[in-house]
Amino acid sequence: MLEETVKKILQARVYEAARETPISPAPFLSRRLNNTILIKREDLQPVYSFKIRGAYNKMAQLSDEQKAKGVIAASAGNHAQGLAMAAKQMGVKAVIVMPRITPDIKVQAVRARGAKVVLKGDAFGEALAHARELIDEHGYTYIPPFDDNDVIAGQGTVGMEILRQHSGPLDAVFVPVGGGGLLAGVVAYIKYLRPEIKVYGVEAEDAACLKAALEAGERVTLDQVGVFAEGVAVAQIGEAPFEILRHWVDGVITVTTDEMCAAVKDIFEDTRAVAETSGALSLAGLKKYIQQQNAEGETLLCINSGANTNFDRLQHIAERTELGEQREAILAVTIPERPGSFKKFCKTIGKRMVTEFNYRYADPDHAHIFVGVQVKPGGEDRQAVIDKLREAGYPVEDLTDNELAKLHIRHLGGGRPKEHFSEEVYRFEFPERPGALMNFLTHLPGDWNISLFHYRNHGAAYGRVLVGMQIPNGARAHVEEHFERIGYRYWKESDNPAYRLFMA
């Protein structure tokens, strides 16, 4: 199996459109982590992503008759741009079906490369279904983003370049995983030529389709997929990639949103490149590997797979970076509501930077403060701060890993109703398109009252929304039936300590 894939990689036609990207050292990160860290720079491709390799190689295998009829894909991300550029270079008509929630910057980028864009549906599945309808109608050839041997061979040229450019010691390579095309190609080439090198896939914790497949021994479909790292938001690993990965990948590492954000910052500090979150995914996995294995003195390489990020997202990424590096603790602390309490609290904290402080008067006896404190990485220092505060008599709730606190409460802290009433609180992901809010409200019964609403645009395809609702007692048992009909992802937060302390 490996030999056949390697032959296809060696024969892949990619360099008519793609370029051989360099490997950049990461000196600051290497010193900090006591290992030699290298970054393969696929963000330097003409479309700022590795996807041009697989798309072009697949198109190069098409017959003249297929090229004459044109090609099509359903994609909201880097595959769309790679295929658009490949088709333009070959003089082939390309149609890209994108969900209506696709950020405008990506739509315009595809159009600028000469492809026709069709906006259809609110999710990838609807876009894919429409693409298949157009294939039946016009005879287009579908160019898949990852589940195809020619696409895998095109992406595998990344692995070929790694071994050619770095002939010295190399302990492990870390590769981002969405549908698995890039990882399968890199694994096949490296394991065939240098099997002693470990190759790890890295997935977002809320989109870990390869990890689920390896644990089950077969491909499975995730019930829900997180969308923060849009480039790897895939519910099921590709069939062709899995046939390789199930035998040859050395393991899968999963990382959090905060760890990805921290890796975006790390890449910027060493290379001045602004990676997309899925582009920084493999570095986040590399760092976690070092932490878990207590690795020192090793040579480790990760792939910056892309730099197609919206500028609007950078503020949110920056907010989460310190948490991802475990350099900030987010705490809810109860202090006495009297003059001098804040000064005494800061004295207890000691010579630490207070990164955030949210407070509003709500009770004559006690004040609940939302505070960020700078700590050392690793977790031990955060616990030391918490222990010190508790020893001083302060009730403390650690919110550092609480999504509700990080997405909403830190921007809402202090607002409380003047009188007690009962409400249910849910967190949602709304598609970023006109009519999404009206669709939500239309599906709610007329006797429900919205008592809390918070939304922030993060420059992504989905907005994060916090909603409080006053619901008649008789309807409470059926609340989530209404949400299921709406079709938006949701989480119940009524018992979340961040909500109870600062909003209830």
TrEMBL record:
Entry similarity comment: Belongs to the serine/threonine dehydratase family.
Gene name of the encoded protein: ilvA
GO biological process, one term: L-threonine catabolic process
UniProtKB keywords: Amino-acid biosynthesis, Branched-chain amino acid biosynthesis, Isoleucine biosynthesis, Lyase, Pyridoxal phosphate, Repeat
Function: Catalyzes the anaerobic formation of alpha-ketobutyrate and ammonia from threonine in a two-step reaction. The first step involved a dehydration of threonine and a production of enamine intermediates (aminocrotonate), which tautomerizes to its imine form (iminobutyrate). Both intermediates are unstable and short-lived. The second step is the nonenzymatic hydrolysis of the enamine/imine intermediates to form 2-ketobutyrate and free ammonia. In the low water environment of the cell, the second step is accelerated by RidA.
Cofactor(s) the record lists: pyridoxal 5'-phosphate
InterPro entries: ACT-like_dom_sf, Ser/Thr_Dehydratase, Ser/Thr_deHydtase_PyrdxlP-BS, TD_ACT-like, TD_ACT-like_sf, Thr_deHydtase_biosynth, TrpB-like_PALP, TrpB-like_PALP_sf
Name listed for the protein in its UniProt record: L-threonine dehydratase
Catalytic activity field: L-threonine = 2-oxobutanoate + NH4(+)
Enzyme Commission code(s) on record: 4.3.1.19
Species in which this protein is naturally found: Chromohalobacter israelensis (strain ATCC BAA-138 / DSM 3043 / CIP 106854 / NCIMB 13768 / 1H11)
Coiled coil: none
Quaternary structure and partners: Homotetramer.
The protein's annotated pathway: Amino-acid biosynthesis; L-isoleucine biosynthesis; 2-oxobutanoate from L-threonine: step 1/1
A GO MF label: L-serine ammonia-lyase activity
Keyword flag DNA repair: no
Gene3D superfamilies per UniProt: 3.40.50.1100, Biosynthetic Threonine Deaminase, Domain 3
